[in-house]
Each structure stands twice: as C-alpha cells, then as structure tokens.
Amino acid sequence: MANKPYQEALVPGAFKWIAGLALFILLVPIFVVFLAGLNSGDFLTFPPEGLSLRWIKAFFESDSYLPAYLYSLIIALTAMVISLILGTLISLLLVRSAFAGRALLRAVVMSPIMLPGIVIGLSLYLFYISFDIGLARTQAGLVIGHVLVTCPYVIGMVSAALVGFDRSLEEAARSLGASRWETFRKITIPLISPALIAGGVFAFIVSFGQFDVSLFLTPPNNTPLPIALYTSLRYTFEPTAAAAGIFAIFLVVVSMVITAKITNLRRITAANYN
Amino acid sequence: MQDTQENRRLWLLATPGLLFFLIFFLIPVSALFLISFDKSSTGIVDIRWMFDLGNYERFFSRAIYYEAALRSVGLAMLVSIIALFLGYPLAFLIAKTTDPARNTFLMILVLSAMQLDMVIRLFGLMVLMGDKGLINQAAAWAGWTDGTPIPLMYNFFGVVVGLVQFTLPFMILSLVGVIQGIHPSLEEAARSLGASRWKAFWKVTVPMSMPGILSGMLLVFALAISSYVVPTLMGGWKVVVLPIHIFQQISELAKWQFGATVAVIMFLISIAAMLVYQRSASRLAGGRI
C-alpha cells in the first residue's frame, strides 16, 4: 500500500492509549505467571523478594505437574497427526469436488470451532456411556474429543491453500509418468506444506491448552496439564504450577513464532475466524 | 469419464474423516438432544426415546436455572461490548502498522495470548487480583488502603475481567483482517471533502468494519457464555452460570437428562446468537448474503 508513514500517523492518540491498555490486559497475567514461577519465596509478594530456580527444579521433580505436562504433549501430538491426515483428505474433497451440499458439509466439519467445548465433551461422554463402547474416560476417548476441535483448524488452512493451487503442476507430473501417489507426495504436499505446518501447529496448541473438551473425558489415572492446573488452582497457588506454566508459555510462543516464519499470520486468522 | 473417477477417489479418501465426524460429532450431539427429552432418572444413562418435556419445564419454572440463563446471556453480552471497545483500537493499530517486523511481533503477542491455556492465564490473574494478591498488597504498601482488601475477585467484577482477558484476542483477530481490507483512499476522500479525522472515522471506517465487529462480538459471546473455568475460578462459585449447572448436574448429582437439557439450552442460545448475527450481516450487505 502507498503512503506508508501516513498510515500509522492516522491512528488517533486515544486509540494508542486504549490499545496499550488492551495489550496490558493480555500480557500482564502471563508476566505474573513468570514472576510467580521464578520467585524465591513461597508466594508472590509486593515488592517481589528475589529470583530463584527452586520452583523450576520442583517442577522437574514433581509427580503431578511433570507427568501432566508430558501427558498433554502425547495427547496433543496424537490429535495433531490424526487431524492432519483426516483434515487434509476432507479438504481435498471440499475443494476439488463439486457436489450438492458441499457448503453444508463444510459448515458441519468447521462447526466444532464455534460450538461450546463443554457441550462437545458432554455429548461424547454421554455417547460413550449410553452406547457402551468402552471409550468413556479413556485415552482414546479423550483424543477423539481433541481431534474434533483441532481438525477444523487443519481443514480451514489446508482448504484455503488448495483453493489457490495451480493444478497444471499436478497434470504435468502425471503426464510425465508419475503415479497418483508420487504426484501427491512430490508435488501436492510440498506446495501446501506451509498450510500443513500452520494447521498442524494450531492443532497441537489448541489440544495442548484444551480444558473444556477434556473436562468430562479425562481418564482417572492420567490428567492433561490444564485439568491438573485447574484442580490445584481451586485450593491453593502453588509456585510449581506457575513453573509448569512457564514451560507451557515457551511452547506456545515458539509455536507461534514458527507459524509466523512460514506463513502469513493474517491469512491464518482469516481462514479460521472470518 | 475421468471426472467421475476422480470424484469417486476423492470421496473414498475423505471417507475416514467423514465417518469420524458422523460417529463422533453428529451422532453424539443428536444423542445429547434425545437424552434431554427423556424423563430425569438419577444414574440412568441411555437413550430412551421418551420425547418428554419435563426437564425443560423444570428449567423454565425454577428461578435458579432460568436466572442462571439470564445471567449467562447478560454476562456474555457485557463482555462482548467491553471486548469490542478494548479490542478495536489495538486491532486498528495492528492493521495500520505497515512495518512488517513490528506487525508480526504484535500478531505473535496476540496469538500467543490467545493460544495459551486459559487456566495458566487465570493463575496470573488470580495472583494479581486476589484478596492477598499483588494489587491489594501494592495498595496496602502504598498506604491507599488500611489493609482491608479491595474485593477484586470472587465476584461478578472478577468474572467479567477474566472473560475479557479470555476473549479479547479473538475479538482483535476478527477485526484486524476487516480493518486491513478497508482501502485508505476512502478515508482520505472523506478527509479531502472536509470531514474531520473523527468524522471520517465514524462515517467511513466504523461502518466498513461492521462485518468484523459483528463476527467478533458473536465469537466473544459464544466463548463467554460457555466458559466454565473463568466463572468457577474468578467467581469462586458465587457467580452461577449455565456451564456450572451442567457440571453439577452431571458430575455431582448424576442427573444426566437434566444436565443434557441445560447443555442443549446453552447450545440453542449460541445458535440463536448466530442467527441474529447472520440476519444483521445480510442486512448490512444489502441482502447480498
């Protein structure tokens, strides 16, 4: 766009103050978690006492937060892989085949993003029990719930990439003797890989921080991190929980930086929230 | 024909995913609806095809339930208005930031704040706003209070702050793309015809960002009305909303049918909000949608 410096000068002064306030509200709680996890005392005081790594150490020795963190990682990785496979195949159908009811199908598979997570979790829980299929409060049952809410992110991003895809490249590969699978692997996948990576990262992060869907589906012997943190937060403020939070913050920030490096962030948000 | 062959292949490849959504999404949600129409019987979880309205009568005849519904709706509306007023300026700033590095930095901040587990963010808010929290400690240290804490949470105010913190990034992301899409020459045209900066903003930029404002408010409403963690932790169980009733009916009282009823009602409120949104959106577009 033209007139670059002019554009920024257009932002009214009052807007800058409110924008600053909004950033403050967004970031201060995260900053406080950092302080609480690196604080040397038993709880955070004002003014702060001093920094130490004792709670970080306590996190690595913890028999509740560390296993919960690792369990969340496993669930998130599994949900991500399943979402990538199912989501990419659904996107191919949605973009490349014209049929009646295509818009409806797209609305159905995208709707778990907009529906209350607690309703999705409860529906699955009731379904598992009333049909007696042995999935209630199991790891598989939990992963299924997570795939439902992560798959739409993959579908949103991959189908957006497929819409702008030049199919003559695939035709060229085919006419040169490549099989369908070879064409898909060597032409299609590399060309949509930014969308696959972005969709995968989003699926991973949404699953890793998922509370609502997990509420009714968590297995009794294994707890994902958000549920473990919630349970402890109901009774007390443990600095070890804040230390676990610090590692979760790292994971999220790294994921978002990776996504920003490989794709246009604005396109991602357009694909999912507009 | 090659096209039909290609079509068949696409359908075949998508089948596992489509079956997944059918079995684990459409059937369970339908089951939830059916169970909500079964007679309430503690401990029994099964679809009994009763088509009984008893649970719904109970919901709308008992004050604790319908008042919770009204409270949930009011809270979600209030939060979506506050999130709009706080989020629009930041979204505007991001949209008008042309330096790519600064722009990406701001987007990463917003996205990270959005994607971080809400329970972790609530930990920070609670350490900040509790009776012995940092704000109260700082106020006492500075001599502004005589040691009696300012009640910042375990009340309605705390829930509103928590929900605004939760939903603000979604509002900002809904707005950035739309504001970015408004061509700057439109505002310049208004200015060159003599409109003041504010007038140009209100008469040109705001109306043109209406689609983003509506979709952002809808998203925030849907997120706020269905949040369970924020009201329980920030409200200390004192601000009772629909998700709290759902959890209590299911996990504490084993009243599955009634729990399903409350969930269906919350679900229908979200759908109703979506319909209102679509109507206003199509009116804005002059009936083109």
Helix-strand layout with pairing:
The complex is a heterodimer of chains A (274) and B (289).
Chain A: H1 4-9, H2 13-38, H3 54-61, H4 65-96, H5 102-110, H6 117-130, H7 139-163, H8 168-175, H9 180-208, H10 225-233, H11 239-262, H12 265-273
Helix pairs in contact in A: 2-11, 3-11, 4-7, 4-9, 4-10, 7-9, 8-9, 9-11
Chain B: H1 2-36, H2 54-61, H3 63-96, H4 100-115, H5 118-129, H6 134-141, H7 156-181, H8 184-192, H9 197-208, H10 210-225, H11 229-235, H12 242-252, H13 256-284
Helix pairs in contact in B: 1-13, 3-7, 3-10, 4-7, 5-7, 5-11, 7-10, 7-11, 8-9, 10-13, 12-13
Features of the shown structure:
heterodimer, A: 274 residues, mainly alpha, MetI-like fold, 2 domains, 12 helices, 73% helix, globular, B: 289 residues
Alpha-beta classification of chain A: mainly alpha
| Major pleated sheet of chain A | none
Helix count of chain B, per DSSP?
13
Cα-to-Cα separation, first versus last residue of chain B: 35 Å
Q: What is the level 1 CATH name of chain B?
A: Mainly Alpha
> Which band does the percent of strand residues of chain B land in?
under 5%
CATH fold-level label of the largest domain in chain A: MetI-like fold
What is the number of E strands of chain A? 0
Helix and strand element order of chain A? HHHHHHHHHHHH
Mean pLDDT of chain B: 90
> What's the CATH superfamily of chain B, by name?
MetI-like
What form of chain A results from the Cα inertia axes?
globular
CATH superfamily of the largest domain in chain A, by name, is: MetI-like
Strand composition percent of chain A: under 5%
Coarse shape of chain B: globular
Uncertain regions of chain B: pLDDT < 50 for 5+ in a row? Answer: none
Elements of chain B, N to C (H/E): HHHHHHHHHHHHH
What is the rounded Rg of chain A?
22 Å
Spatial extent as radius of gyration of chain B? 24 Å
Described by its quaternary structure, the protein is: heterodimer
What is the averaged pLDDT score of chain A? 89
